[in-house]
């Protein structure tokens, strides 16, 4: 029988597995996969946080922006770089909230 803590532990474990295997795979993958995997990990973390009582409009907003643009990595480096820059600016703007 799964308890809430066990379910939560499993989700964090899966996130850690994703991050560690991503790090290993990045040795041979293209350079843009690193930033993609980092923003994807951030999105996954924000998705888990409400289950531990951490929920906020600004985190949900950033997660939505990540989900809306993370696949621009498939377009070209300039587009993906601009997308990452917009994420950074969105974070800076929401720091005082």
Explain the overall architecture.
It is a single chain. The protein has helices at residues 4-25, 33-48, 57-69, 77-93. With 97 residues, the protein is mainly alpha-helical. The protein has one domain (4-93). α1 (4-25) runs antiparallel to α2. The longest helix has 22 residues, at 4-25. It is flat and about 45 Å long. The model has no long low-confidence stretch (mean pLDDT 92).
Main sheet attributes: strand count, strand direction, barrel closure? none
- Total discrete domains: 1
The gyration radius over C-alpha positions equals: 15 Å
| Category by helix and strand content | mainly alpha
Strand content: under 5%
Order of helices and strands: HHHH
Total helix count? 4
Provide the low-confidence segments as ranges.
Answer: none
How many β-strand runs? Answer: 0
Q: What is the average per-residue confidence, as pLDDT, rounded to a whole number?
A: 92
Cα(first) to Cα(last) distance is 40 Å
Global morphology: flat
- Helix % is over 70%
């Amino acid at each position: 029988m799964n308890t809430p803590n066990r379910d939560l532990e499993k989700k964090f474990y899966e996130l850690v597995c994703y991050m560690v295997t991503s790090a290993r795979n990045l040795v041979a993958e293209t350079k843009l996969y690193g930033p993609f995997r980092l923003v994807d990990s951030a999105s996954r973390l924000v998705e888990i946080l409400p289950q531990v009582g951490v929920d906020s409009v600004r985190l949900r907003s950033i997660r939505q922006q990540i989900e809306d643009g993370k696949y621009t990595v498939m377009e070209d480096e300039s587009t993906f770089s601009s997308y990452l820059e917009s994420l950074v600016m969105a974070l800076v703007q929401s720091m005082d909230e």
